Input
Amino acid sequence: MKTIQRLLLVFSLIFMCSPIFAAKIVKVKGRRVTIKLDGMKVKKGTRLNVYYKKKWKAQVAVTKVKGKYAFGVRKGKGRIKKGYTLKVSKVNAKEPKSLKKKKSNDDYIAGFLVGPLIFSMNVTDTTTNTTKELTSTGLLLVKGFLDYNVFDFFEARLGVGFANFEATNDTCAGICEVAINYFIIDATPRFIFNKKSNIRPWIGGNLGLYVPTGFVVTAIGDDSVAATGFFGVSGGVDIQFGEMKELMIPIQFTYGIFPPSDTVTANAMTLSAGFAFKF
Output
């Protein structure tokens, strides 16, 4: 009897001294995870340390709790796989320094924008000292983009795309025409007003490099068509949805000007919308 009691005591001590992990990762998609709680009590904002074979691997922040499952996102660096175990973080003593320095949401967001483009150009004839205004026809902007979180309230949107710039003046008897296809590389620094909301309005600037890929011009000389810059202001709203806000509908308005010359000034305006996702 004493032998049995001693064995029970030993097993009890072993059981009490061993770390017990009640929660387990059952699904991983990029930085986002689904957690089976198995009795663990958590709420939105709870930090969980991730372990594999008793070794710390990463940290997860809970974004949503639904019944026996919780949904979260990996914070900072680390590696997460299905089957890894978790426990509630009390003191983040085992976190690497790189993780402690960056607690903001550093997700990347990739997507595309499509929308109409309005283009206007004024061309001055130095021989007659007259100015002709060329207005746009049906134009289209198509652009892919990547958002990168710089600070909690500040993001950089980097984009590449194509646009066709066409403008004519009907009073010129068919000789005032500009049609240029551009390959676009641009950057849009954005100030986010409320990053925690599902609807995030923002304002920012827009700097672009426009490289011509083909053109037909009669209102200006062929030598006037070259790579050029673009300087503008932007604003819009990001509408987030999905179980963990991983999907987004971006809406963006941009107005700007091209660097003027002695005889030509031009401006453009776009209103575009699209689709994006976090990864």
Observations:
- Residues 13-21, 91-105 have pLDDT under 50 and may be disordered.
- The radius of gyration is 28 Å.
- Residues 2-17 form the longest helix (16 residues).
- The chain is about 10% helix and 60% strand.
